[in-house]
Automatic annotation (TrEMBL):
InterPro entries (UniProt xref): Rossmann-like_a/b/a_fold (IPR014729), Universal_stress_UspA (IPR006015), UspA (IPR006016)
Family designation: Belongs to the universal stress protein A family.
Name of this chain's protein: Universal stress protein
CDD domains xref list: USP-like
Amino acid sequence: MFKTVLFPIDQSREAREAADVVIEIVKKYGSRLVLISVVEEPDKDTSSEEVMASPETVAQLLESAKSMFAEQGIQTETIERQGIPAFVICDVADEIEANLIVMGCRGLGLTEEGATESVTNRVINLSPCPVLIVP
């Protein structure tokens, strides 16, 4: 059912919590697991804490996640890209023919404007495959 699962990761608590769901899905369906992290350029409206701006930070994060999944007996592939996270995630999902994207949910607030600008919301609207959001 879920032959290829794409798991976008960042340094958020929500991504760490979503990893447990990814482990269950991958083990249950024998899925191929692809981890992706996006190096993004900060803009004037984004704090440095919210931005994955360093390639070294992203590489270290991917290596750490890969080790964590290996401890669970799950082999992973890793992809590091640069760009706007939501667009990159959806492009990669299309490239690797992902059957599912699993993401942690990060709220930007309860305003309609904040919700429409979130990476999660953009991925939901642009994804070429189903998206599972882990609260």
